[in-house]
Fold:
Amino acid sequence: MTHTYTVAGMTCNGCAEKVRKLLSSVDGVENVNIHLEKNEADITMHHHISTNELQNALKDYPKYKLSEQENHHAQMMNEEETKTWFETYKPIILIFAYITGITFLIEWQNGFNPMRWMHNFMGAFFLTFSFFKVLDLKGFAESYFSYDIIAKRWMGYGYVYAFIELALGIAFITGFNPLLTNAVTFIVMSVSIIGVLQSVLNKRKIKCACLGAVFNLPMSTVTIIEDLLMIVMSIVSILFIIL
Structure:
């Protein structure tokens, strides 16, 4: 991801090079392009880095002041604020509606079996959501890194997680070892929901990675419900199998 910032205090090419080196030293920054004539810096990063952290890299040179571009920031904020709840979450609502409708129709044709429907629903859920993650695997991993408790320690988990969902989707659809499949689902989704809960409770305004980097969905209670639904369904299935 690349963001453009205003950097005040640069007066020559030497200043520009100094700022470039200082910003490049920040962990997570991949590339820095300085536009001296515009007093701007294009910063490419592999995960979100706060403006304060970037400014802190310039602390030994007080004349350099880095800030977000206010007009762009205000425009993005206004666009988000004018959206209704339905407009914001329309993609995920439509996906749930399609998955629910199609799996119900399948069961309607074969004699409705609640457990079979639930497994088909979970399979379709994981296959669909993994598809959107794989569309932009790098973008998903970068977004997931910002809140998941495992991805924060190992960014590679974001790449692995997309294929865990794919494997779970295939396992549910094919009926592979239901007890093992539901147990893995319970563990994976329980771990996933921890980072989601922390972000929502701390009111962090970050992007939800549930649909990868394709849609710009904010982290909210909708994400909690999504994860919680899979956890509850896996528990119900495990109890049904055991009992």
The two ends are 49 Å apart (CA to CA). Residues 6 and 40 are 5 Å apart (CA to CA). The chain is about 65% helix and 10% strand. The beta strands are 2-8, 29-35, 40-45, 65-68, 207-208, 217-218.
